[in-house]
Give the backbone structure.
Amino acid sequence: MLGVNKGEVILVNHSDNWKRLFDKEKSLLEKIIGDKTKDIQQFGSTAVKGIEAKPIIDILVGVKSLKDVEKFNKEKLKEAGYYHLSKVQIDGKEVFAKFTDLENLTKTHILHVVEYEGSWWNEHIFFRDYLNTNPSVAKEYESLKTYLAAKYPNDERSYTDEKKQFVDDIIKKM
């Protein structure tokens, strides 16, 4: 299963298929925006071996400057199912999401476009790599996410806000 409706928090067992799905998506994105990017990486919980995750592939797209987003072929991205979430205002990041169902806003992939090797890039990559090299910490994170998913099954914002402290504590180890 891949995809979650807007606002829902659903965790599923880790799938080895997520890496293959990322690779397929990376290939597609390289054809559409590859000349405007420095690197494309999978991150988030689907990139951490052995832990439950929301079945959404998080993709980190590194660009030289966020102004490069203006040069993205948004029509081709839209044809591929990606929409620029211009209402999502996060300093240093532009967000696109791929939807399989626009009525329920079922997201399957999220593109986090950030400056390559900038703070967003480095922190996201560090967090992913830290969890992959520290399985006991990854399991702690999984336990927290499981608790929060049960507490906030229809409140993605509260779920995300409450796990932020854990993420920030790991990032301080950089």
In short: The chain has five helices and five strands. Residues 17-33 form the longest helix (17 residues). The first strand starts at residue 39 and ends at 43.
